[in-house]
Amino acid sequence: MKQSHPYPSVSHPRRMRAALAAAALGIAAVGMSLTATAATASVEPTPPVDDPKRVVYVEVNSNDMSNVADYTLEGTLRPAFDIAVIFAANINYDTEKGAAYLHLNERVTETLENADSQIRPLQQRGTKVLLSVLGNHQGAGIANFTSREDAAAFADELAAVVDQYGLDGIDFDDEWSKYGENGTAQPNESSFVHLVDELRQRLGDDKLITLYNIGPAAEATEFDGIRAGDLLDYAWNPWYGSWDVPQIPGMDAGQLAAGAVDLTRTPQATAAAFAERTVEEGFGALVTYNLTAGDHSGYISSLTEPLTGHATAHRAPWYDVDVEAAATCAGGDVKLKVLVDSADPETLSAEVISSIGTRSSTGIVAGEPRAIVQHAKHGAVADGSLTVRIMGAEGGTAELALPYQVPACR
């Protein structure tokens, strides 16, 4: 079990099927992914978001990763959590070969092999899914590879699991290694730097590498002109219930989580204060731990409201739909075309409501984009805004406000 350090005196040396759900939002020429909600309040299109990242660790030995997909930001098309970490895989030690290797326990393996239900729903909604890697009391860890070659071999294993299971990256955690066990080496200055450097080369820049900022590795982030901080995406404070800024050369506040929240133990008022302080002081993330089954939207709202301006909704249905709007001129009048492109297994209906009229379409199925066209007749004036109402056979409804550019047709 992860050591949660709930309320320490910090001695670390440094430091959318019946309510709203989350979906990934991608806007390109006024297009976006869409969720459905039983409510009829308009859901505003979401601009590029610079809000602090909401990070959550899930103990898969006792909880499902799929719980993360249950939470959305109310009134938006965004997930409540930007990054979800599978806790945890291990670094084990092969005493015969004298080498570290990646070990996936039964529950981690089950989570990965059931990616369609445990991982893909999160990713479809816009949450990045990482695999946490930490020691296992056998003497092997991220801080004691004695050569770049050994670090590279372990990086190969990590990159392979990311590729095999379609993950979004790796999170490093230097706990429970018990360096020196089984005759293993003690931590050194080069190990973690070489490991991060080798893994970054294999994953490229489109994957995330993060650090749970604890242990000897957190104290050895520079070697031979290479800084792990230049290669890492984020680092988190490991002491839950505390505020502690990671001190990693090469990383700025926008890459750090200074506030750390145990979702089952940190008082809600403390958690809310950390979220507020994260925004006020310009930190790029807030890390949380131990999301369990059930509805915790009230508690999570105390984090998301300061961080994003939105409360959190629980278990809302989700439609995998992209919507695009474009206006052109036809005979001197505005012609408005809305394209609804579904990847959802459910047969959908759509209604376009604008200042120039209302138009509906039914029987929208996955893989068959449907165009809904309106003309500005009888003196109707295009005003640059519309609402697209998506309806599912099971009753879920979403209203999405969508802007468009009005052409000069006369």
Structural write-up:
The chain is α/β, with parallel strands linked by helices and 410 residues long. The chain folds into two domains: 18-48 and 319-410, Immunoglobulin-like, CATH 2.60.40; 50-314, Glycosidases (TIM Barrel), CATH 3.20.20.80. Helix content is 18%, strand content 31%. It is built from seven helices and 22 strands. It has helices at residues 106-113, 115-118, 120-124, 148-165, 191-203, 268-280, 297-308, and strands at residues 31-34, 42-43, 53-59, 71-73, 83-94, 99-103, 128-135, 169-173, 208-212, 222-223, 226-227, 234-236, 256-262, 285-289, 312-314, 321-330, 333-342, 348-354, 357-364, 370-375, 385-392, 397-403. Helix 5 links the parallel strand 8 (169-173) and strand 9. Helix 4 (148-165) runs parallel beside helix 5 and helix 6 (268-280) packs parallel to helix 7 (297-308). The longest helix has 18 residues, at 148-165. The chain is elongated and about 85 Å long. Residues 1-48 have low confidence and may be disordered.
Please give a handful of descriptors for the protein shown.
single chain; 410 residues; alpha/beta; Immunoglobulin-like; TIM Barrel; 2 domains; five-stranded mixed β-sheet; 22 strands
